[in-house]
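Worked example 3 (structure in, sequence out).
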């Protein structure tokens, strides 16, 4: 091993610091250079200084009231798990696999002949090799509607199938568009590019129309969800949060429990709005009964209006509009909130 001697230190009169003249090292290989006493000494000095600096930084953070340095654990992403030794006859977890292709629907069969078959070979059946594939292509249909003319001179033409709903885009394509946009969160520009690549002749306006218009069936299903959920639920939970729609501030209210979740947006988060949501669109009528009159009395509704509603008003109103008109006729518009609740 090569030995190195440090020369005597000199004091710089200007900076009042001691400096050392390090000897010139001979050209050595990297491994031999790392093992020299000088390198070992310098590494030890660096380590000591690093630990001292970290202690001083910790004291400074403590004095300034800063949080302590977080203890970050080393990453375990590249850790290699050791294979567990299995006992005799024991199987590895997950080794009992099902036959994946047993329940697959086979749409097409192709027979492949072996190469170099000789006449004296005996055929012994087939070895099945199942491949799963998909067809992503357009499928255009031309409906030729028969047309007749009656003896009176009138033309009668056959109608298109009802499932088309008067659209030039089939139900399968519409399902694919809705699935890509709402379930897979594919944006309209990318979805439009995808459809054009598949051979579908569609514009951005038509795509937007398919995504937003004529969705009454989905709205009806959404409203029926709340009705059925309230029928089978022993309890419900509710909350609301601010939301913007069409550049205006509004609110989004959620009604849920372990069985269902229902969202609805509106302009207000009042008690009346929540009660109207619970009534669902199937029930728009208003009743004035014993419980309604009792609530009005608890909310200190003026007696004259309570008497008018109890004795000189009908007990049933078809909808909210007719109920508010009656309150206006009685001069009780200012108390509409109490009466409606």
């Amino acid at each position: 091993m090569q030995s190195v001697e440090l020369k005597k230190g000199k004091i710089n009169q200007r900076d009042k610091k001691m400096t050392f003249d390090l000897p010139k090292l001979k050209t050595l290989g990297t491994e031999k250079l790392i093992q020299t006493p000088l390198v070992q000494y310098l590494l030890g000095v660096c380590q000591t200084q690093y630990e001292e600096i970290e202690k001083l930084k910790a004291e400074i953070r403590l004095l300034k009231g800063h949080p302590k340095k977080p203890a970050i654990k080393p990453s375990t992403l590249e850790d290699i798990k050791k294979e567990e030794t299995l006992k005799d006859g024991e199987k590895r977890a997950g080794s009992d696999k099902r036959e994946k292709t047993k329940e697959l629907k086979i749409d097409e069969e192709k027979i492949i002949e072996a190469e170099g078959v000789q006449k004296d070979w005996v055929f012994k059946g087939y070895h099945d090799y199942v491949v799963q594939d998909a067809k992503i292509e357009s499928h255009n249909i031309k409906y030729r509607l028969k047309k007749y003319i009656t003896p009176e001179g009138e033309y009668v033409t056959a109608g298109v199938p009802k499932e088309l709903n008067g659209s030039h885009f089939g139900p399968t394509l519409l399902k694919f568009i809705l699935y890509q946009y709402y379930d897979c969160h594919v944006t309209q520009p990318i979805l439009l590019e995808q459809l054009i690549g598949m051979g579908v002749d569609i514009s951005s306006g038509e795509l937007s129309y398919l995504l937003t218009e004529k969705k009454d069936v989905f709205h009806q299903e959404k409203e029926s969800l709340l009705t059925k959920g309230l029928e089978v639920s022993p309890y419900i939970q509710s909350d609301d949060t601010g939301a913007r729609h069409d550049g205006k501030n509004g609110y989004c209210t959620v009604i849920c429990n372990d069985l269902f979740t229902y969202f609805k947006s509106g302009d207000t988060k009042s008690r009346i709005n929540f009660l109207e949501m619970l009534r669902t669109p199937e029930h728009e009528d208003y009743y004035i009964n014993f419980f309604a009159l009792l609530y009005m009395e608890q909310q200190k509704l003026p007696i004259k209006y309570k008497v008018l509603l109890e004795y000189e008003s009908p007990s049933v109103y078809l909808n909210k509009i007719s109920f508010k008109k009656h309150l206006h006729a009685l001069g009780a518009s200012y108390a509409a909130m109490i009466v409606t609740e």
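Notes: The beta strands are 10-12, 17-19, 147-149, 155-157, 237-245, 248-256, 261-266, 286-287, 316-317. The mean pLDDT is 78.
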